[in-house]
Amino acid sequence: MKPFDFKQPATLEQALTLWHPGAAWLGGGTNLVDLMKIGVARPDTVIDITRIPGLSEIDLADDGSARIGALVKNSDLADHPGFAARFPMVAEALLSGASGQLRNAATLGGNLMQAPRCPWFQLPESACNRRNPGSGCDARQVGGLALIGASEGCSAIHPSDLCVPLLALDAVVEVAGPDGHREVPFATLHRLPGEHPETATTLAPGELIVALRLPAGAARFAGHAAYLKVRERTSFAFALTSAAAALELRDGRITAARLALGGIAPKPWRVPEAEALLIGQPPGAEVFARAAAHALEGADPAARKNWRRLLAIRTAQKALHMAALGTPETLPALPGSVFRSPAQEVSHA
Amino acid sequence: MPEIAQPFRFGSNAGQPVTRRDGIAKVTGAAAFAADTAPAGLLHALCAPAAIARGRVTHLDIARAESHPGVVRVLTPANRPFLEGDPAEKPTMFSFRIEVLQDDSVRYAGQPIAMVLAETPEAAAEGVRLLNPQYAAETPRVTLDEEAAYPVEPGGFGRPAATLHGDIEAAHGAATRALDVTYTTAPQYHNAMETHAVVAEWTGDRLHLALPSQALAMSCAAYAWFFGIPVENVTLSSPYLGGGFGSKAIPTGPQVLAILAARVLGRPVKLMLPRAQMFGPTGHRGATRQRLRLGIDDDFALTALDHDSLSETSSFDDFHEPAANASQGLYAAQALRSTHRGVRLDVGTPGPMRAPGEASGSAALECAMDEMAEQAGLDPLAFRLLNYAETEPGTGRPYSSKALRDCYRLGAERFGWAHRPLTPRQMRDAEGMLVGWGMGTALFPAPMFQAQARATLNPDGTALVETAAADMGQGAWTALAQIAADALGLPLEKVTFHSGHSSLPDGGVAGGSGHTATAGGALHAAGTDVIRQLAEIATADPASPLHGAGNARVAARDGQLFLVDDETRAEAFEAILARHGGQSLTGGGSAARPPEDAQRHAMSSHGAVFAEVKVDPELCQVRVTRLVGAFAAGRIINPRLADSQLYGGMIWGIGMALHEEAHHDPRTGRVLNADLAGYHVPVNADVTGLEVLTVHEEDPHVNILGIKGVGEIGVTGTVGAIGNAIWHATGKRIRRFPIRIEDLLAE
Ligand SMILES: Cc1cc2nc3c(=O)[nH]c(=O)nc-3n(C[C@H](O)[C@H](O)[C@H](O)COP(=O)(O)OP(=O)(O)OC[C@H]3O[C@@H](n4cnc5c(N)ncnc54)[C@H](O)[C@@H]3O)c2cc1C
C-alpha cells in the first residue's frame, strides 16, 4: 500500500482546508480502503471526516421532508423508524445492500460516492479509462457491461442500491467546498462516462457531501413504494438489475409515479417518459409492462439481445406491481426480494 | 428397523453430541492460527502474482521495489536461492509440481513471479506494486474448448481410473429407451476462510513451521525434501485450520518460497496469501464437461451407464476431477463404463476439493437419472429403487454395509415426497412462485489412510492421548478425544488430547472423509493397548480384586477395570497404578485398512437428498427452500459434529448448484472475480429449511470402530437434487452448473 498521511479534522472548515489534489475523504472506508489495498486508489493523504460534528443527524420535518447528515451510517438510516415509514423504499434499498457489518460501517456520503465494481477497474494492470485515462477499456472485450448510457471509453455500472430510490424521489445533495455551500439535484450528481469516465460525479475537486435532503413531496409515495433487487444469491450481492417504483393512487388511478432502475447503467437510471405513461391509468400488468419497456428504450443496440435487458424490464414491471399492492406494514425479512415470505404453503395445480 | 437417533450407551463418550472442545478458544479468539505466530524479527512476504496466464515476464523494476522504505529483498528467478528439491519433481505421491521462481515463464494467472520481503505487510504490498511487471503475453487457453482432448492415463494421484464392465455400445444400442446428455460444471476455488499461510523460522538447519496443514507428517516430509534436510529437522505446528477443503494437504509454491526466504535472510518470515492469490497456486476444482449415455430395458432396468468426463488440468501437471467415478458403484447397470479425458489449460493445477469427482460427477449423474426417469414416465425415486445395486455393480462385491434403502425411505417420508406430481410446473405457493421437488442419491467412498497414536495413563487416573491429527473446523479435537476416552474407559473430562503438532505420532491425512476412522482407529488401538497392560498388572496383583482373572474377562469403564461377568469385582485405575510404583503406563497403536479387507468389500457412505426450490416465474430467481438429507455413514461418533459436516456439505451443494464459479478474463486468463464479493458461496439467507437425518448403520467390515465418513458426502446428491427440482418447478432442463437466472430466462 502506498504510504499516506492520515488527518482527522475536527471541523468542516479544517477538513476543507486540508484537502489538496491527491487527498481522499474517508467515510466508513468500506470502499476506499479496499481500493487502496488493491492499488486502485492511491491517495497521498487520507482525510477522515467522521470526527466532523453535525453530520450525523437524521431530521424529519413536519412538512414530510427529511435531511440526513452525510456521516449517518447506512444501517442507522434504514433502521430509523420514522424515516423508514416515510421513505420505505429507501430503507429497503439500504437493507438490500452489502451485509450487516458493511452497512454498520458505511456512511451515506460514501455510499453515494462509491466506485463501480467493474472487474477491470479493480485490476490495476488492465486497461481502464476510468482509473487511468486514455489507457482503453478491457470491458469492451466482453461487449461492455452497462446496457444503457455507456460510452466507447467506459461501460462500468453504478453499483449503489441506495441511489436508485434517491433518484426516483428527487433527492438533493448538499455539498460544501472551498467556494462555499451548494445544492446538487440528485439527477445531476452522477455523470455518464462520455469522453471522461475518470470524472464520475459533478462534485468539484475538494467538495464534500455534507447532507442529503428528501423533498416533502417524496413522502406521499409511502403507501405504494417498493425496491426490488435481483441477484443469484439471496443476499450480499450487487444487483444484476434493480428497480425503485413508487405510485400515488387516487380513486383507482395512478396520479403520480416514480420509476428508477439500478444495475444497468453508469448511473442510477430514470426515464420521466416511462413514468408519464402511468399517469391517469389504473394500475395493471399491461401498463406496467409498457412503462417498464419504455424505461429501457434507450438501451444500446448491442444490448438489445442481452438477457439482462429482459430481466431489467421484468424487474421494473414487478417493482411497479409490488408498489401497486401497497407497502408492507413492516419491512420484509428479506428486503428488496421477491421472496418476501419464505414459508409459504405449497399448492398443487 | 433403523433408528434416526443413535442409541444411548451408558458410559460411552462416542455417540454423544459433545460440543467442540476448542469452541470457547475459537469464539474468544484465544485459538492461535498459523498466521497469529509472531516471532521477534519477523519479515513479511508477499508474492507478485502474474497478471497474465501464458507467456514470459520480460521486466521487473527490482531497483524501484527495493528502494521503497521497508523493503528488504526481492526474490526473482534471477536471484532465487538454491532449492535442494527440484520443483519439476514431486516430493511425495500426493503433491504437485510447484512454481518457485524457477524461470521467467508464466503458466497461469496468479503464479508467483517474484516475492517481496519487507518489514511490514504494507511495505511488502507496495514493493510488489512497484515491480510493475512487463510481459511477453501469449493468448491464454482457459476454457475446455481451447485445446484438443487427450485420454487420461489411469493410475496415480490425479489420474482417475477408467472402468468397463460389459459391452456398453451394444447395451446402449439395444436399449428400449436411451439418453445421451452433456452436463458441465464450473471451475471452483476452495476459498477457506483462512487463506494459506506460513510463519517459517530456521535455527541452523532446523526448520520450524507454523503452517495450516491437513496432513502434518506428509507436509514435513515434503518440506524436508525441498530443503534437503532430514525430516526430523522439521517441526510443524498446525493446531487449527480455518478450513482446508483439500487445498491444505499439499505444499504450495508461495509457502516454499517464504521458507526459502527465511533461510537466506536469516530471519523468520510470515506469508499469508491475500484472498486474490487463492485463485491460482493453491489448487481448485477444474471445470468438467460430462457426457452421460443411459439406456433402460422394458422393465426400466438400466442396461447401460456410460459416463465420460472431460476436465481441465494445467499445462505442466495432472489432476483430473475424477467425475466419472461417481457412476461406478451406485446403480445396478448391466454395462458400465467410466472414462476420463483431459485438456491442458493455462491455469494452476487443479487439486482435490471437497468430494473431488463425486461432487461434479454426482451432479451430472443424478440429473441424467432424473431425465431417464422422466422419459420412462417414472417417479425418480421409484426409478432409482428399480436400479438399486445389492452388490457393487460390475464387480459383484458385497457392500460392507449399505442402508441406502432406509435413507431413501426416511428422507422421502420426512420430505413428503409421495405428494410429488410426476410432471413439472404443477406446484405454486401462495405468492405465485413456481415450486419444484427433486432428489438425488448421495455416495462417497469410505477410505482409510495410515495413522499412529500414543496413550498415557497417569497415576492420578487421567490420561494423555496424542496424535498429529488435523482439525479444519470439522471437530477432530472433540470426536477423536471421544474415541480415545472410550478406548481408555474414561470420561472425556479426564482425557487430555494433544494434536496438531508434528512432534506427535503421525495422525495421517484429514482428507477423503477418512480422518475420524483412521486417526480414531489409531487412538482406539493406543488406548486399548494401555488397558491391556493395566489389566495384566491388575490380574497379576494379589492385592487387586481382579487378581487371577484372565485379562480377556476384564473391561474398562468410568476409570475402573472390572470383570465383565462379575461387576462387583472392580478397581479404580489409580489404585492399580499406585501399587505398581505409582508410574504411568504408555501404549501405542496404529490404524490402516488391511488390503484384504479393501478387496473383500465395497465400502461407501450413502444417502438421499430431497430438495424443494421456488422459482420466480418472471425474474427466474431461484431459492432452495427445503433440503432434507438422510445419510448412512456407519457409526456416528458425535451427532452434533456429524450433522454439522452434513449440513456444510449440503450448503456447499447449494453453492455448487447456484453460485460458485470462477470467471476468466478471456484476454489475460485472470480470474475476474477473485474475491469473496465476486466469488459467491451461499449466505445465510440462501439456506432455509435444512434438515439432516442420520440412519443407524452397523458396519463390522469397514474398520474396527465401524466408522465411515461424513465430511464430503453431503455435497453429492444435493447438487443434482436442486437441478432436478428446478426442472420440476419450471419444466426447463438446465445442463450446466451453476444454474443461473440467465439460463432460466432464455426462451
Ligand atoms: C463486499 C461488499 C459488498 C457490497 N455490496 C453492496 C450492495 O449490494 N449494494 C450497495 O449499494 N453497496 C454495496 N457495497 C458498497 C457499500 O455500500 C459501500 O462500500 C459503502 O456505502 C461506502 O461507504 P463508506 O462510508 O464506507 O465509504 P468510503 O469507503 O469511506 O468512501 C467511498 C468513496 O466516497 C468518498 N466519500 C466518502 N464520504 C464522502 C463525502 N461525505 N463526500 C464526498 N465524498 C465522500 C471517498 O473519498 C471514497 O471515494 C458493498 C461493499 C462491499 C465491500
From TrEMBL, chain A:
PROSITE patterns xrefs:
FAD_PCMH
Show the SMART domains listed in the entry.
CO_deh_flav_C (SM01092)
Q: Which residues cross the membrane?
A: none
Q: Name one Pfam family in it.
A: CO_deh_flav_C
Superkingdom of source: Bacteria
Keywords assigned by UniProt, alphabetized: FAD, Flavoprotein
| One Gene Ontology term of the molecular function aspect | FAD binding
- Could you identify this protein by its name? Xanthine dehydrogenase family protein subunit M
Q: Which organism is it from?
A: Pseudooceanicola albus
Q: Which InterPro entries match?
A: CO_DH_flav_C, CO_DH_flav_C_dom_sf, Diverse_Substr_Oxidored, FAD-bd_PCMH, FAD-bd_PCMH-like_sf, FAD-bd_PCMH_sub1, FAD-bd_PCMH_sub2, Mopterin_DH_FAD-bd
Q: Where is the FAD-binding PCMH-type domain?
A: 1-219
Automatic annotation (TrEMBL), chain B:
InterPro entries given in the database record: Ald_Oxase/Xan_DH_a/b, Ald_Oxase/Xan_DH_a/b_sf, Ald_Oxase/xanthine_DH-like, AldOxase/xan_DH_MoCoBD1, AldOxase/xan_DH_MoCoBD2, AldOxase/xan_DH_Mopterin-bd_sf
Q: Which domain of life is it from?
A: Bacteria
What Pfam family does this protein match (any one)? Ald_Xan_dh_C
GO MF terms here are: iron ion binding; oxidoreductase activity
Looking at the record, the residues that make up the Aldehyde oxidase/xanthine dehydrogenase a/b hammerhead domain are 28-139
**Residue ranges of the region described as Disordered:** 584-605
Entry-linked PANTHER family: DEHYDROGENASE, XANTHINE DEHYDROGENASE
Question: What protein am I looking at?
Answer: Molybdopterin-dependent oxidoreductase
Question: What species is this protein from?
Answer: Pseudooceanicola albus
